[in-house]
Specification:
The chain is mainly α and 213 residues long. It is built from 9 helices and 3 strands; from the N terminus they run αααααββαβααα. It has a 3-stranded antiparallel beta sheet, sandwiched between helices. It is globular. The chain binds manganese (III) ion (MN3).
Length: 213
């Protein structure tokens, strides 16, 4: 089956006021939908037409060269957004708060603390602000260790360090393209990041960490 656009796991307005309804509608219904359409159009009639998004991003080097750039951007965009929607939940109803259990322990061991000075949240937010132009910030599980890294455009850590400058299994990702925040926050990416913590679904992150091992 070609790639398909999944519905959001919550209504468009569910993440208000932190992420606004109009942004969610355009982001999912226009931006994400376009990545799916364009990836399918690129792969139509090729041996890759039935490949999963994960196959496409992890085996990018095997994709015919004339299609590779379009697959990198569009299958990458589809993979990244499919995860991103799952990583959020309404504030106070699965979203926000702090990680628990083995995830909390792993974050503390890798970064010193979750929300203390110089700790995980501060480092992740700095990486989000340091990403010039469009891209993503990731928390990855790489060889049993948690690391923060960032990628340009729709690159993904599963593409590997040689391509994406980052490697490992993503367990948390933040979209810092302007389309993710401009309607509500305009140029204030830092405010978007601060607000986004209120809707992070740490239960999902914990599950992804468990599956990454
Ligand atoms: Mn986006």
């Amino acid at each position: 089956m070609p790639l398909t656009l999944q519905n959001l796991p919550y209504p468009f307005e569910a993440l208000e006021p932190h992420v606004d309804s109009q942004t969610m509608q355009i982001h999912h219904g226009k931006h994400h939908a376009a990545y799916v359409t364009n990836a399918n159009k690129t792969l139509e009639g090729t041996a890759w037409a039935q490949a999963s998004a994960t196959d496409l991003v992890t085996r990018l080097a095997d994709i015919p060269e004339d299609k590779r750039g379009a697959v990198r951007n569009n299958a990458g965009g589809h993979w990244n957004h499919s995860l991103f929607w799952e990583l959020m939940a309404p504030a106070g109803k699965g979203g926000g708060g702090a990680p628990k259990g083995p995830l909390a322990d792993a974050i503390k061991s890798a970064f010193g603390s979750f929300d203390g000075a110089g700790g995980f949240k501060e480092k992740f937010a700095s990486a989000a602000l340091a990403r010039f132009g469009s891209g993503w910030v990731w928390l990855v599980s790489n060889k049993e260790k948690l690391e923060i890294c960032s990628t340009p455009n729709q690159d993904n850590p599963l593409m590997g360090r040689a391509i994406a400058g980052c490697e490992g299994t993503p367990i948390l990702g933040l979209d810092v393209w302007e389309h993710a925040y401009y309607l509500k926050y305009q140029n204030r990416r830092a405010d978007y990041v601060t607000a986004w913590w209120n809707v992070v679904n740490w239960g999902k992150v914990a599950e992804l960490l468990k599956n990454a091992k």
